[in-house]
Amino acid sequence: MQLAPMEAARALDREFLQIRARILELAADLDRLDRGAGSLEGDQRMEQIRQALEVLLRQEPGRAEAVQMIFSRPYDPQWKTHFRPVPKPR
Amino acid sequence: MFYIDPHIHMVSRITDDYETLARMGCLAVSEPAFWAGFDRGSVEGFRDYFRHLTQVEPRRAAQFGVKHFTWLCINAKEAENVPLAREVIAMIPEFLQQPNVLGIGEIGLNKNTPNECTVFLEQVELALQYDLPILIHTPHLEDKYMGTRMILDMLADFSQLDPNRVLVDHVEEHTVREVLDRGYWAGMTLYPVTKCTPKRAVDILEMYGTERLLVNSAGDWGPSKPTAVPDFIMEMRSRGHSYEAIQEVVLENPMRFFSQSPHFQLEVPTQPSSASA
Ligand SMILES: [Zn+2]
Question: Predicted ipTM?
Fold first, then answer.
């Protein structure tokens, strides 16, 4: 069964305050990281956050999937070549 | 509205939770064997756990008219100890004839290690040997994508395995397509932070349709919500989706998947109006 999504204008009416609140929460999170003592330079997680925020500004679908991939270890199609099953005892 | 929670760890929940689920329309729960919050020290620990799953929980659920089904296995978290895992696998058949056992699960990967793969493969063999459906756990967070792909690669090597008898659980936006495309069932777990939210689960259904997709709460020892499926139902209703579409996902799909197991039986109460119509 296919499900039709809600009409865009209605969805915006429904989500607007929540989107606003979540963006505000994120902005305050980032401010908090800045205010703390010490530096986060070179921390890979900050780079992931920056890349994910850029995805949000894309004008195309698939943003949630793209954000998931930023926070995922990449798939190695050759993984089996260095994974040997543990032999069964005789 | 009646529903089934196809993945919930009731051993970690209080009896009041069964009552709450029953009040919300839950007809049945299915509980895969998993980690107990600590690593068990011996095969006897698992034997007692399987007695808990096959004898104690069905009785506790029945007090509220909820049917309890279960899946047996050694989980990925404890699979690092391969000798112990093999003792557990050898013991599982003792319990397979218990009337609430649906199949083998939740097997899978946790940190995507060679030992986990070894134990996963041996349990797929066990399921094939006993002709049982399989329920699969996919890893969390950054390991999910790689782990899910590894699981699909391993399953593809079993030519005699029917994808329609395998449920790959905890799918999210980046793993759902591959699982459905290969003909498996896919479960979405509604967790507050680390997995899927009710809203995102409805989004995924709007993108992929309802076929072979399930939703569950996976309520367990960690932060989780046993009433997450009713939250999902609320989200579907508030977006204007039909009663039929909701029933398809929360009741009919789990029944279709579980019906492939010889032990699955469930009476769905019919409403007086539809009975007289
Ligand atoms: Zn689970």
Answer: 0.94
